[in-house]
Amino acid sequence: MKHINLRKSFTVLCMSAFLLVGQGCKDLLEEKVISSIGDDYLNTTAGFNSTVNAAYSSLRSFYGTERGLSMTEYGTDLYQAGADGSYKGFHFYDSQLIGTVAIIQELWEETYKGINTCNALIDRSATITGVSDAVKKQRIAEMKFLRAQYYFILFQQFGGVDLRLTETVLPTKKTARASSDDMYKAIIADLEGSLPDLENKAKSGDYGRATKAAAEHLLAKVYLTKATSTSKAADDYTKAATYAQNVINNYGFKLLPDFASVFSQGAGEINDEVIFAVQYTSDALTNGGGNNLHLYFGMQYDVQAGMERDVAYGRPFKRLRPTPYTLETVFKDRVNDSRYKKTFRDTWLCNTAGGTFTNVFDNSKKSVTFKRGDTTMYIPGVEWTVAQRAAKPYQVLVPSLYSAALFPTLVKFMDPLRPDKTYEAGSRDYLAFRLADTYLMLAEAQLLTGKKADAVKNINMVRRRAAWAGKEADMEITEAQMTFDFLMEERGRELLGEQTRWLDLKRWGNLVDRVKKYNTDAVVGVKETHNLRPVPQTQIDRSEKGSDGGSVFPQNPGY
Known about the structure:
With 559 residues, the chain is mainly α. Helix content is 35%, strand content 7%.
């Protein structure tokens, strides 16, 4: 299968967004490094093709990055703050969460660069020669998909933004915040308008391009979100279900037999469950910051007895620690459900020369002795007595000993193909849309329209796949068990860490309630204000002034 040149990164055009005065173009994706090019390059055949590929690169500003992770998984019911790290305002919902935070401004600017690149290509496409009409129509459809995706990201984070659907050629201070109705209208129009001309198959011949399946998956998510908004319509859930069902029925996608294999690296990244992936590469010249999610979920294993940092166990930034609710409730079933074992690392092996060590956290012993390859630490996931722990030659990390530095480590994003133990720019693709999420969205839409039997059928598809061998029947739930609470927990089990949870809680309208109930870090700070992020102060400052002297682009309430 041929790969789209999205794996090759560079500045082919400086399609800067309208207020980004002085911002250089960076991390746009193309085939080769070009030191400088004129604006009219887009109007050539080569420029058209390069610009299409460049438009995809802004996805890398959100997916698989600290920026996107901070704005989707921090401060939820499933994850609380680890010992280290930046941007903790997103965990604590305190005075650190303001419009001057770097990643807020970066997401805004990089996403608008992507939007304006899409706008430029759509606007200029009619005058570009050397590209067949069929290819041109497909590429314009891809731009509509991307533009909708970029606006949906911004809309979920900030509310109504400046809705620009034509190319902005010169810097301007004329801005306005679109209404919720207008945002949904534009996003849905782009996605539904793209469907006739996107490739009508599971995966593009140039892997990484948007397909009709990807657009329908995103439409299902958009309609689910719209259904709980001020713009809701009576048929939103029905439309969400229809689009999700289309993805499941029409393209040949399949849930992989093994949950862990979904996150295989290398050739395994392209599999029957992946609907749309954001591409990264091992080429340091073109990978930018890379997919660096491998950094943020790890515990501090590397200073423990018998251990040192290595590539296999990763570089542990200790940014996200699972809440007790995640470990004790969401992943409570470990007899039938394989996902606890396949989601968290429970065993570490001595990767030093060994010896006897007295730096122990396990209070059942005063020292430990290892040789290379011995088990040094084990996390059983349940409490053991002191006597049970003392009987083991290794340290046992039980829940009562968990801390901001020591906790179960998420493994689905680990990147053992990095060239050395300090390397941050991971190479694995980010799986933005996958079939298990489609099934869960379908179950959600069906449950909320009273079709509980159908919802059970679809959620059981995901649960059977997650079962230990021979436990498939035990994993199935009944209609009596199919509650919204169960659905929320099932999404937590299946999609933990996959840049979905804050967006889910916002969509469900229970962000504040769930965080207060399950996340002790944020219980004091979180309030309804936090269903939106603060607008970047740069956007406010660069907008026109109104008659009262204030910006015509107001800050979100409460910030």
